[in-house]
């Protein structure tokens, strides 16, 4: 093609990692043909400097005949003597069975020292989300063996849900545990601005657990150019979609940290002299996040893509633009703080699709009853802290609260769902009598462990003793 022979050398300016080049429009007004640009938004380009060094770039802006390019390796050492050649296609990711167990960087190149994959098939990244007519209603449970998720806020296939947390919390080890314990065929991991220790921890965790052979990793480290961070979610999701559609796989996509991704978007926007909207973030932050999260889908004629991310909240501020916008897009959140998943700050809007339908009949009653009693336990703790007199029921609640935190809230716990439900019945029986549970009698008759039941209190005698 003629495009392969054309290079453009009119470099107008270089700002940060953004380079602007003038590209004459095609067409000729004298012949009546309309003008059209030789490039499209999102196309790749190859930049060659005066010394012959090359690097990839992506078209991120077109203003008449001025094209803005985002240089993946940065603009250090690049001068206005460089030339640009447009490749005529968007950025692509390698997709084949050979990518399982491999690690790629932010440009899609292998970084694990494995065999060359340059001849393997490629897929375009960043395409549109799936036609709603090709989706089905989410109704399948993804087991994680984490009690605070499986029992109280189920993870459902095709769900998009973040982990809200703050710096210093163990959200990365927790995300790795979910990756190795989740009931999924393939795990696609995207690391955004990870320090080397975190990257090494993720990889070693997947290898030690024996799941690395069904894992694909796309890594942008903190030492890598920040612009290489932006394609990572798109490459991970493009590969996940292919596995789901073409091979019918149940794919779990893990991304950390989406706040680092949004910060990269902000930095690029500032370099392009765009007007910020809120705390320095661009006005299209919501759209940029939604384009990625909406890739989650349960395909009518294939598998599914489920997205679980980490979103850190600077200063534990839930109104920060990144978690604030994320909350409008996703189907709930897991709130991780003080090393535990908070049952009151967490929410799964799709859990009603599976609780009691694909899980055990007592699941919904156990979930609601335990949360009700734990809420009462927190109230009883406040009464105790302020030196108020406690009733016998308050003491029962305090006992339950201590047991609940130790048996369920620790994120290091690994417990299958059915065992967690049985443990819930055991915990209730150790603290409350059957008539105090306010649950369906048929469930109490079937699941309540009678051997642990507290002695029944004669309310009439108790009232007489109080009067005396």
From TrEMBL:
Gene3D superfamilies: 3.40.50.12240. InterPro entries: ATP-synt_VA_C, ATPase_F1/V1/A1_a/bsu_N, ATPase_F1/V1/A1_a/bsu_nucl-bd, P-loop_NTPase, V-ATPase_su_B/beta. GO terms for biological process: ATP metabolic process; proton transmembrane transport. Residues 356-448 form the ATP synthase A/B type C-terminal domain. It comes from the Bacteria. GO terms for molecular function: ATP binding. Transmembrane segments: none annotated. Residues 147-337 form the ATPase F1/V1/A1 complex alpha/beta subunit nucleotide-binding domain. The keyword Nucleotide-binding applies. Pfam families: ATP-synt_ab, ATP-synt_ab_N, ATP-synt_VA_C. Keywords: ATP-binding, Ion transport, Nucleotide-binding, Transport. Residues 36-88 form the ATPase F1/V1/A1 complex alpha/beta subunit N-terminal domain. Produces ATP from ADP in the presence of a proton gradient across the membrane. The V-type beta chain is a regulatory subunit. PANTHER family: V-TYPE PROTON ATPASE SUBUNIT B (PTHR43389:SF4). Belongs to the ATPase alpha/beta chains family. This is V-type ATP synthase subunit B.
